[in-house]
Design goal:
This protein is mainly alpha-helical. The chain has 16 helices and two strands. 60% of the residues lie in helices and 3% in strands. Helix 3 runs antiparallel to helix 4 and helix 8 crosses helix 13.
Length: 287
């Protein structure tokens, strides 16, 4: 095997992997990668080197085969993107880079909570005085924020009526809080005597975490007998986008509100769910 194709022949022996990953991390940050993407790429590279000590074309293809055997295509592609970024960082020949799997694009959008289930959920949360999660669900569904953005909100943001969020590529977008939600939230905060600090607190009085939001939503799904597949943070973000489109909102404006890099990403919300498609077909086809 020639020198070019063998890349850095044995990165574990030639350099400390910790040092290499630290340099890789700085490279990713310099490429304006988001914090979550940096962590994902570092994890992907660590996993590769836990299976193979050498970066060679044969090992790369073997690793891809191993991924395809054990993981869903989306996970395989995520790991491949991590390695390709590392290979670019190592200045390898293009022949060393792996091709992602070609995914068949769905013509429908699934795992979106229905409007009826959403309204039922927030009603039950309010009646049971689970105010923190009532407002968590309301904020995601009326603003379209990501859960990582949600947990970063401060009480001062509610008083201001908006929050400026730094998205991918250091782009800043403004998240607006609808006036009705803002007034109701201010009433809740005033009742609790909170005027500064994190908006959403855990039962320990500390800032709510992403995992805390996700796990507790599953508890409420079980308690209220809702489908757990649609009671998760991104489902409410989907609901926001679907409602926005169905109420005549502009897709370019929606793309900006959601912080998407491309309007093509936002076009998925123009699709109907598979359940909606089946219902329309049953209504239309009578032959």
């Amino acid at each position: 095997m020639n020198t070019q194709n063998s890349c850095k022949k044995d990165i574990l022996s030639d350099n400390s992997l910790v040092d290499v990953l630290y340099s890789f991390q700085k490279y990713l940050i310099a490429q304006n990668m988001s914090h979550n993407t940096v962590l994902s790429y570092l994890c992907g590279v660590k996993i590769f080197f836990s299976h193979h000590s050498e970066l060679t074309p044969d090992n790369l293809m073997l690793y891809k085969a191993e991924l395809m055997e054990h993981y869903q295509p989306q996970t395989v592609n995520s790991r491949i993107r991590s390695l390709n970024a590392f290979l670019r960082f190592q200045h390898t020949d293009d022949t060393m880079h792996l091709r992602c799997l070609r995914l068949q694009q769905k013509t429908y959008l699934d795992y979106v909570i229905s409007q009826g289930d959403y309204e039922y959920l927030i009603r039950r949360l309010w009646e049971d005085e689970n105010y923190t999660f009532y407002f968590i669900v309301r904020f995601i569904t009326t603003t379209g924020v990501r859960v990582s953005e949600l947990v970063s909100l401060e009480t001062e943001d509610v008083f201001n009526g908006h929050r400026d969020i730094c998205s991918k590529g250091n782009k800043v977008r403004r998240i607006f809080f609808p006036s009705a939600l803002r007034q109701k939230t201010l009433g809740w905060l005033n009742k609790e005597g909170r005027h500064r600090g994190p908006l959403f607190l855990s039962h320990l009085g500390t800032r709510m975490t992403i995992s805390g939001v996700r796990s507790q939503l599953k508890v409420f799904a079980s308690r209220y007998q809702l489908d757990p597949h649609v009671v998760y943070p991104h489902s409410f973000r989907h609901r926001f986008a679907k409602n926005f489109i169905e109420n005549g909102g502009d897709i370019a404006f929606l793309s900006n509100l959601l912080g998407h890099d491309s309007i093509e990403t936002t076009r998925i919300y123009l699709r109907r769910s598979s359940t909606e498609q089946a219902r329309i077909l049953d209504r239309v086809v009578d032959w």
